[in-house]
Structures are given as C-alpha cells and as structure tokens.
Write a structure and sequence with these properties.
single chain, alpha/beta, Rossmann fold, 7-stranded mixed β-sheet, 7 strands, globular
C-alpha cells in the first residue's frame, strides 16, 4: 500500500498561504517532488496558491493564470516550472500534446496542474492539494486546505 502523508489546514485566509507553503518547502524544493495537482471549485484559490509556490521556488517574473493559454512556463536557473490549467480542455487526452506531456519528461521540470481530474492517465502526483471554501465560517475568504504527499511517488522520482 503506498505510504501517504496527509496534512489538513482549516480556516486559512490567503495571507496565511505562505505559512503553509513554508511548511511544505522541504517537499516543494526537493528534486523528488515535481508533480503538484490542485483541485477545488472555480475561484477557490488554486492559482493564488501556485503563484506563491512559484515565488518560493524563485520565479520573479509576472506569474500569469493559464486559464486561457492552458500552459505558462517559467525558467529559474536550470529548472523549468509548468503551470497548467486543464479546466477548458474538452478531450481528456488532449493534455498529451507535445508541450504538456513533455513537461513530465525532464527531471528538472516542476509541473503544477489545476483541474487534474479533467485529464486521463496523468502521471501520479507527488503532492495533491485540495482547496475548498470553509463551511463553518460564512466568510468567502476562508479556506480549508487538504494536502496529500505521496511518498512512494516521491521515491519513484528519486530513482530516475
């Protein structure tokens, strides 16, 4: 059975995301953790979370949402960061285009995918993040964040 570590954060506001990202920094900066999948309803904060993660990893240029372009790529030193949004994808296999599928091939690439459930047969994520509105508070700016770290997947990437 794959070993998974689960973290759950309640009542989080956007300005607190940095605290969570710093707790994940070991995994984020690890060469072993390269595939990050984000789920949650429209407007819940997936792009904001990814934007902060990319800043933590050294991206200094303007970080754009890939909602319409589907893919935005950033370079830092010898690493590439792919921010992919599959929401508008009609065919669940169309992520297998050269640009998107190639992102998974190089061990120096980090891949951040919004709406992974829209794609068929994606590589297993190293870290899955689910963001949802907190139902306990009636504040639209409060979120709950569930993070699942797949240590078997992380080990797999270390072997390559």
């Amino acid at each position: 059975m794959p070993e998974k570590k689960k973290l759950f954060f309640e009542n989080i506001k956007e300005d607190q995301l940095e605290l969570i990202i710093n707790r994940l920094k070991t995994f984020i900066e690890s060469e072993n953790s390269r595939f990050f999948y984000f789920s949650g309803v429209i407007g819940v904060g997936k792009t904001s979370f990814i934007r902060m993660m990319l800043r933590t990893l050294g991206v200094t240029e303007t970080i754009k949402s890939p909602s319409f372009s589907m893919v935005e790529t950033y370079e830092v030193d010898d690493k590439s960061f792919f921010h992919i949004d599959l929401f508008r994808m009609q065919d669940p296999n169309s992520w297998k285009t050269d640009e998107i599928s190639a992102a998974f091939d190089d061990s120096k690439n980090y891949v951040f995918i919004e709406w992974p459930e829209k794609g068929n047969d994606l590589p297993a994520p190293d870290i899955k993040i689910n963001i949802r509105h907190n139902k306990k508070f009636h504040d639209p700016n409060v979120r709950d964040i569930a993070i699942e770290i797949n240590t078997i997947s992380t080990l797999r990437n270390n072997i390559k």
